[in-house]
């Protein structure tokens, strides 16, 4: 299933490596998380988390509800500051300059009260573009075409369907040409066809060399997308493994229970 | 009772005939109040947006102050503007007292806090919705403020309307700084006050009818705009 999808996506990507993916953008790796804790108002949400990501593969963060997946994503993106510990990207602390090289797609898209095209225009206007880049309107149309919304360009963004809104949200994130793309359960409320479309775009972006960090509850989706997995439970990292190892031989009881559909306590 | 009926009949005749004095008063009223609203929006919207999007020490005090200023007594504002613009005042050299400009200043002072306080609430609600996305996109504050004002434009129109309503209906401040001089600073409210005190009810009633019609028309227009924006998911 996954190979088929990668092959399909690769047909649209001009430059691919031997494993079917483009050479990664190495600039923001490694990501190093050292003993971070996030404890707002005394409630521990992330508890002494330590890990390092050195490989450009697509990382999926999994775990039951309340595991701290979304908070971890926000911490990695610098939207929240850890109570203690530190996070570095490419051996640099996460500052505004690094944050501008990242983008995030939220579970519920928040779109501006404008047309779909104007939502992209707003983001394109946030970053300076160099002379080698096509004109903003051409880049906008390419992005809308990429997420199959070109025919909806002049529609009010909030009048689009849920799947279309999420694709627009993804296009808006891609307009930033990020080196790292975070996605927080972007397909949680979408039908299978819409979810697959999002997955295709994410894989395509991954093939273009963008580091993807994807939060999902959907085990099938994680199997299709992930190169490596971070499994969280109660704010702790229970497993960091390759997707193959995680799905065939999870080492923690919580992960085994989670994968077999049992209630994880 | 018959006198009142006759007064109403005469008032309608005045409006229908397009009486030149009446039109002059209406024109000046609209000019003064619209310019005052424009100035108040230019000042009040960015102030409201800045307070809505910023967190700083003393913000609560500023909010209380801003909300209190919404109830500024017009005669006090009129008196303060008078003191500043009179020959003995610090701005006396401008020679603005008893001019439409003085009335615009007084009305702008009265309604700027209204625009700022109401727009603060509208923009803060929208900012709550956009904040996380803006933080993720690293949107600079000035761009965030412009985006918020633009996206809240239909709600802010209602805010501007509230300001206009206050300005056009205001009498205390404009009578002090304008002096209600015929063909120079006489506006609808000051004319109504004067004509009523003189017992000339037809003109007072005619102006009252115009005021009411104006309020109704503008409200209807803004509501129609707001509804159509909502229908197309822009509001």
Commentary on this structure:
- The complex is a heterodimer of chains A (265) and B (235).
- Chain A is α/β, with parallel strands linked by helices and 265 residues long.
- Chain A has two domains: 2-101 and 178-259, 3-Layer(aba) Sandwich (Rossmann fold); 113-176, no CATH class.
- Chain A is built from ten helices and ten strands.
- Chain A has helices at residues 2-10, 69-77, 96-99, 116-124, 136-146, 162-174, 192-207, 219-225, 243-248, 253-259, and strands at 31-38, 46-53, 59-62, 84-89, 92-93, 102-105, 180-184, 211-215, 228-233, 236-242.
- In chain A, strand 4 and strand 5 (92-93) form a beta hairpin.
- In chain A, helix 1 (2-10) packs across helix 7 (192-207) and helix 4 packs parallel to helix 6.
- Chain B has 235 residues and is mainly α.
- Chain B has one domain (2-231): MetI-like fold (Orthogonal Bundle), CATH 1.10.3720.10.
- Chain B is built from ten helices and no strands.
- In chain B, helix 3 packs antiparallel against helix 5 (100-137) and helix 7 packs antiparallel against helix 10 (201-231).
- The radius of gyration of chain B is 21 Å and the shape is globular.
- The mean pLDDT of chain B is 92.
- The chains are: A alpha/beta (265), B mainly alpha (235).
- The interface between A and B is medium-sized, with 21 and 17 residues.
